[in-house]
Amino acid sequence: MALNDRLAALLPCFPLRAGPLSALDLSQGSRVLADSGRLHLLLRGPVQIEGDGEDAERLPREQWLQPVLVWLPAPARHRLMPMSDQPMQVFDVPVDFGESGLNPLLDALPHRLVLARRDLPAAMSATLALIVEEAEGQGCAHVAMLSRLVEVLLLQWLRHQLDRMRGGSGSLLAGLSDPALRPVLDAIHRQPEHAWSLAELARLAGLSRTALAERFARVVGQPPGDYLLDWRLRRARLLLREGLGVAEVATAVGYGSAAALTRLFSQRLGQAPARWRREQAVRSRVSAQ
Parallel, antiparallel, or unpaired: how do β-strands 31-33 and 62-64 relate? Predict the structure, then answer.
């Protein structure tokens, strides 16, 4: 595993999964989509996308005349509208990147990311060409092939987004792009059960404790201790969903007892871990119906 892979500790916890790619027919007017994150490949014809209903404010109206890729990482009710009667080529893919509040990468991404086709990095352009060729060819196993190619495209996009965040501030992506903070974040992500001290984290960063605390808060957007606490809670919820007992989860995320984790859960989320898990199970059954 490459030591400089900024996503290696996160993607196994929050795998990015693409559903089947489909061509959207906008000849009869607009389409409203809402059930998952989406990737739209707007390859021919002017198209407008805007938020719909309660998502109208966070997805303001935007029009594109040139071919673009539009990624909505989190589920958002939105409308696609043709802006002319000329022939259209629009592909749509549902994308699952976990839930807001659980996946810190998802929470760090903008509500909408846009890349013009002419501005794509070479690797993304090559992947897109394969996607279009496969979509139009309808060859053997093309459904599975397209899903995997879309996942590759989105992982390339994440890498591109990280590269653009160098020197930025106020988000996890900026922190992962900071050479001093990257090993700190990687250590926290890999070992949430460890009782990390500020001195230990500072040694990983090659900074003084004061310099690390200031830099981490400025670049990531919160102090190191707060980020560690948030990460432990995210991991705890993931493990509870997987069926681990409260005591097992407490040990896995660095708390000495089920009672300690229960107190933290109640303080931060307003309910005990066991109750939270029961409610999540009910929601999953309802959404599956």
Answer: unpaired
180, 224 in Cβ contact below 8 A?
A: no
Task: Tell me which residue has tokens 């190619």.
Answer: 149
Does the residue 218 lie in any domain? yes
Residue type present at position 179: P
Q: Let me know if 199 is exposed, middle or buried by CB neighbors in 10 A (0-12, 13-18, 19+).
A: exposed
In tens, the pLDDT along 236-274 reads 999 998 889 999 999 999 998 999 999 988 998 888 998
Q: What pTM, to 2 d.p., does this model score?
A: 0.85
DSSP 29: S
Over the stretch 110-127, which tens digit does the pLDDT of each residue have?
Answer: 899 998 988 999 999 999
Give residue 2's pLDDT.
47
Give the C-alpha separation, 236 to 265, whole Å. 9
Total domains in the fold of the chain: 3
Same domain, 119 and 150: yes
For residue 259, what is the domain's CATH number?
Answer: 1.10.10
Q: Residue 114: how many CA atoms within 13 Å on its side-chain side?
A: 14
191 pLDDT exceeds 90? yes
End position of a domain, from candidates 198, 222, 246: 222
Mean pLDDT (whole number) for 266-283: 86
- C-alpha–C-alpha distance, residues 42 and 215, integer Å: 39
Cβ partners under 8 Å of residue 127, min gap 6: 149, 152, 153, 156
